[in-house]
Amino acid sequence: MANPPHPAELKHRRWQFSLRTLLLFVLSLGVVVGWLANQSRLVREQQEAVSALQRLRYLVQYDYEVDSLGQPTRHNGPRAPAWARRLLGDACFVEVIRVVPSDFYLPPSDDVLVHYRGLPGLRYIDVSGEQVADRGLQHLANLTRLRTLELAGTSITDAGLVDLRRLGELRSLSLLGTRVTDDGLAQLRHLSRLQQLNLAQTDITGRGLAQLHGLVQLEQLDLAGTPGTVLHYFGLYGWYTARTQTSSPSSSRSATT
Hints:
Layout: H1 7-55, E1 58-62, H2 82-88, E2 96-101, H3 110-113, E3 124-126, H4 134-137, E4 148-150, H5 158-161, E5 172-174, E6 196-198, H6 206-209, E7 220-222, H7 230-246, E8 254-256
Parallel strand pairs: 2-3, 3-4, 4-5, 5-6, 6-7, 7-8
Antiparallel strand pairs: 1-2
């Protein structure tokens, strides 16, 4: 028959157990405090960005108000339990997903785009207008949840497209009337989920289109007003052939020239 543990041994075991419990508690507390600190920073940055954009008369829309397409949602407030909203405040549970000028005569500029950096949840951005150039796109480089980006008529060049490479969730991109060239399209190869691409009224040719073959989800390609050379249409044919081979028979692909 085994002898009962010595009292000193029992005390030692309790001490070990208490120490492990304390370490786990401190570790868990550190994780919670770290999360709260990061959340507080994100909330503060979003509120500062919203205040700045509203002063510039921009319309800011939250995720409980509209979806990424701008359609009203059925939610009457933040999608979080009432107790959590009372404890932490509504600001912890809302994200800005769309920013649009409230007036047609308020074209965005590079100086306005600096405020977009504090809105990491943005899904839709329309910054069309000649006052936006390559420098402004640097402020959008970390908006990795962006779905739609309208850059029609901007002054961006191939250099600005480098800042779009990290926007892996992008579904729709308009470069209508911009100064991008065939060389710049190489930067779009990283946008693997792109479904709509507008290159109308640019100088894109068949050489540039050849770089789009890897965009297997691309469904709509607008090339209206681009140079209609033989090489151009050869590149378009190559793009269409690649899309047909990698898509299902039921999928629909279209190109506008």
